[in-house]
Specification:
two-stranded parallel ribbon; 404 residues; two-stranded antiparallel sheet; mainly alpha; 3% strand; 65% helix
Length: 404
């Protein structure tokens, strides 16, 4: 079965290429005819999508169908946008490309609105959409920063930490996903709401709690929070009181509810986790320092031994040594085996490769694998696991094709 989107793809990639327009008499009538053909194909794609989605019975089949259409539409939108930006084209031709780009965007928005359950929010944004969205988000965030200052937030370091997450959107970063954009748009809305609901003396604490709740898991935010806590602890002269204060922070952070499926950096550990673990390390250090001398016996001689005090460990650096993956154990095993069998690491077998990589890998359920534990997943490679890995590799191929 040939999908209508394949026909539209050929029409755009071949017939509408600027170099092929010379095969037509380029005038207002011919350009109108091409735009009308595109509109007809737009309606055919939309109608076929509705029919296919409601005819499929398996959720994974529907998701794959929607993801494939979404990826092709994004590629075609970028392709037509590149056509439109060519400098040697006449204005009527540019207008035709702009109209056809709108046809493609219409279908993409249709998928996002009506099949949002299956829409892939980790897919990159079309370039034209990203450029418009970046300007919109930048203007909103500037108003938000002004509102935070008026609401009493005087800590410019914290404002700079938040700003950093918006600078990459407006910079040269090309691979930006729907999820990235949605996170920043929602965060601006939540920050603006705080400005109207909090008193000036509590705005700083409220912003910190919102960022932890929203899993604002950037490196800079972690270091900012820990520096604030360290400065606070340095002002307390008594170790017992330091311990008590840190324990209060642990309790307060534990009481902040995490926001499900919402994070600044999806493949990094949560802000709540890395901050809590770092404070726990500081607590462990202070408690060991405050424990006093211990007694040990060696060949019937009893000696007092002072506690061994080490420098507090930066938990975040320890966590960073692991790469957090969105894959199940069987998928990690399959990726390694396929990589080796394809000649990706000559001189290695998948077991020796796993011995070097497994300990640095983690997912939502396991923090650090072993080569043996991943090898055990070889019996759990199901057709579903293979399909998941294939989809990931297809996404990599599409990304490679999109790079300049």
């Amino acid at each position: 079965m040939e999908y209508e989107l394949e026909k539209w793809d050929r029409f755009i990639s071949m017939t509408l290429q600027p170099s092929n327009l010379g095969n037509f008499i380029v005038n207002e009538e011919s350009l109108r005819l091409l735009a009308d053909q595109s509109e007809t194909k737009r309606d055919a794609v939309r109608q076929q999508m509705i029919q296919v989605v409601f005819s499929l019975t398996k959720e994974k089949a529907i998701a794959l169908f929607v993801h494939q259409h979404q990826a092709v539409l994004i590629r075609l939108i970028d392709q037509v946008y590149q056509y439109e930006r060519q400098e040697d084209l006449e204005i009527p031709v540019k207008n035709m490309y702009h109209e056809i780009g709108a046809h493609l965007e219409f279908v993409l928005h249709f998928i996002e609105n009506y099949f949002d359950k299956y829409f892939n929010f980790d897919e990159r944004l079309p370039v034209s959409y990203l450029e418009n969205a970046a300007t919109y988000i930048a203007n909103r965030f500037q108003l938000c920063k002004d509102a935070l200052r008026r609401a009493g937030l005087k800590d410019e370091k914290l404002i700079a930490v938040i700003s950093e997450s918006f600078e990459d959107l407006c910079g040269e970063r090309k691979h930006f996903t729907y999820r990235d954009l949605r996170y920043r748009d929602t965060l601006i809305t939540d920050l603006a709401t705080l400005c109207h609901s909090q008193k000036k003396e509590s705005i700083h604490r409220a912003v910190l709690e919102l960022l932890i709740h929203s899993n604002f898991n950037s490196n800079r935010f972690f270091h900012y929070v820990m520096s604030v806590i360290h400065e606070e602890i340095k002002q307390i002269p008594v170790i017992e009181e330091k311990i008590e204060k840190l324990a209060v922070h642990v309790k307060e952070i534990a009481q902040i509810p995490p926001r499900p499926a919402f994070e600044l950096q999806p493949r990094s550990p949560s802000a709540k986790l890395i901050i809590s673990e770092a404070i726990e390390k500081e607590l462990h250090f202070l408690r060991s320092f405050n424990a006093g001398p211990t007694i040990y016996t060696n060949r019937n001689n009893i000696h007092p031994s002072p506690p061994v005090v080490t420098e507090p460990c930066n938990t975040y650096e320890a966590v960073r040594q692991q790469v957090f993956l969105p894959f199940k154990g069987a998928e990690i095993y399959l990726l390694h085996k396929a990589f080796i069998d394809a000649g990706g690491a000559p001189g290695e077998i998948y077991k020796t490769l796993l011995e070097k990589t497994a300990v640095h890998l983690a997912n939502k359920t396991v923090k650090g694998f072993s080569a043996e534990s991943i090898c055990k997943y070889s019996d759990k490679v199901t057709p579903e696991v293979k399909d998941d890995v294939k989809r990931f590799l297809q996404k990599m191929i599409r990304n490679i094709d999109s790079y300049d």
